[in-house]
């Protein structure tokens, strides 16, 4: 039995779909979700749907009952260390034989504030004694392509990343890697540094959007403090604006770059190219 948490989210749902495509019987997949009704379509296909609310540990014991493998898709920043610990405890109690976790690339070396929760979660997993695999994901292309309407309207991508290279890949790429780990007998106690085959800069992203859309889009590189202030001016809560400004500051230092090739090796295919990601984003 394979349990996928956050199964109604963007990444978790893709993992479930990938497991089905790989031939895992639907009845041997558990789509664990805070709101099971949102997974009604998966239930209709025979997937087991179970409630799994990270803030209500009593739901987690039932969610992990009978699990042999599990994927913890990280929750949103906030209270996620405590939430993740509750999931780890439930998985350990259930005797899960493989526990995979979606962490962040270069988690053990980065200075990025966003990585702190991931580092703490990785530590909790190690301390639990569960056989684990850390799927350290770099940035999603969708973090940018999902904002294309605003990008085209403004004619600009704003940031503070300088010429830092980002090993971006699509959610589908990361989902395929997770599904591969869950369906093969690979090593445990390992961390995969996952990212796109070809790293990009935000200036290159802007140029590709310009080329494909016919609308001039430029990358405007701002000082970190000014970028943070700009994000707050767009209505982003101050702590979130600070978090994302810090991400860009660390992108400039190479924090979201990896050249391991782990993602394409695990998924068994080249990662999504910049051109394909932009094309998909413009069609969305």
In terms of DSSP E residues, the strand content is 5-15%
Low-confidence stretches: none
For the largest beta-sheet, the strand count, sense and barrel status come to: 7 strands, parallel
Helix/strand-derived class? alpha/beta
Helix and strand succession?
A: EHEHEHEHEHEHHEHEHEHHHH
- Tell me the CATH superfamily of the domain at 2-138 and 169-194 and 258-269: NAD(P)-binding Rossmann-like Domain
**Outline:** globular
| C-alpha end-to-end distance | 34 Å
Strand order of the largest sheet: 3-2-1-4-5-6-8
The amount of helix comes to: 40-55%
What is the class of the domain at 2-138 and 169-194 and 258-269 in the CATH system?
A: Alpha Beta
Count of distinct strands: 9
Average of the residue pLDDT scores: 96
Figure out the total of helices. 13
What's the CATH architecture name of the domain at 2-138 and 169-194 and 258-269?
3-Layer(aba) Sandwich
Give the CATH topology of the domain at 2-138 and 169-194 and 258-269. Rossmann fold
Work out the radius of gyration.
19 Å
Explain what this protein looks like in three dimensions.
- It is built from 13 helices and 9 strands.
- It is α/β, with parallel strands linked by helices.
- The protein has a domain at 2-138 and 169-194 and 258-269: NAD(P)-binding Rossmann-like Domain (Rossmann fold).
- The chain has a 7-stranded parallel β-sheet, sandwiched between helices. Strands 7-9 form a two-stranded parallel sheet.
- Helix 3 runs parallel beside helix 4 (80-94).
- It is globular and about 55 Å long.
- 46% of the residues are buried.
- The mean pLDDT is 96.
- This is NAD(P)H dehydrogenase (Quinone).
């Amino acid at each position: 039995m394979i349990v996928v948490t956050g199964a109604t989210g963007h990444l978790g749902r893709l993992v479930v779909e990938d497991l089905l495509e790989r031939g895992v019987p639907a009845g041997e997949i558990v789509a664990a979700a805070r709101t099971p009704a949102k997974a009604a379509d998966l239930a209709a296909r025979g997937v087991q749907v179970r409630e799994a609310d990270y803030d209500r540990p009593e739901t987690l014991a039932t969610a992990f009952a009978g699990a042999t493998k599990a994927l913890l898709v990280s929750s949103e920043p906030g209270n996620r260390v405590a939430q993740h610990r509750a999931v780890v405890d439930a998985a350990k109690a259930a005797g899960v034989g493989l526990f995979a976790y979606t962490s962040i690339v270069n988690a053990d070396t980065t200075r990025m504030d966003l990585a702190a929760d991931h580092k703490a979660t990785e530590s909790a997993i190690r301390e639990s004694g569960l056989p684990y695999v850390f799927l350290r994901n770099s940035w999603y292309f969708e973090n940018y392509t999902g904002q294309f309407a605003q990008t085209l309207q403004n004619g600009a991508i704003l940031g503070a990343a300088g010429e830092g290279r980002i090993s971006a890949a699509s959610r589908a790429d990361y989902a395929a890697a997770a599904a591969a780990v869950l369906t093969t007998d690979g090593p445990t106690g390992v961390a995969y540094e996952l990212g796109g085959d070809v790293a990009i800069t935000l200036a290159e992203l802007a140029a590709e959007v310009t080329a494909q859309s016919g609308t001039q889009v430029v990358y405007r590189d701002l000082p970190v403090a000014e970028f943070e202030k700009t994000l707050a001016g767009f209505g982003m809560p101050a702590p979130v604006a600070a978090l994302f400004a810090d991400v860009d500051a660390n992108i400039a230092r190479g924090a979201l770059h990896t050249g391991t090739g782990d993602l394409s090796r695990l998924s068994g295919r080249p990662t999504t190219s910049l051109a394909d990601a932009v094309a998909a984003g413009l069609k969305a």
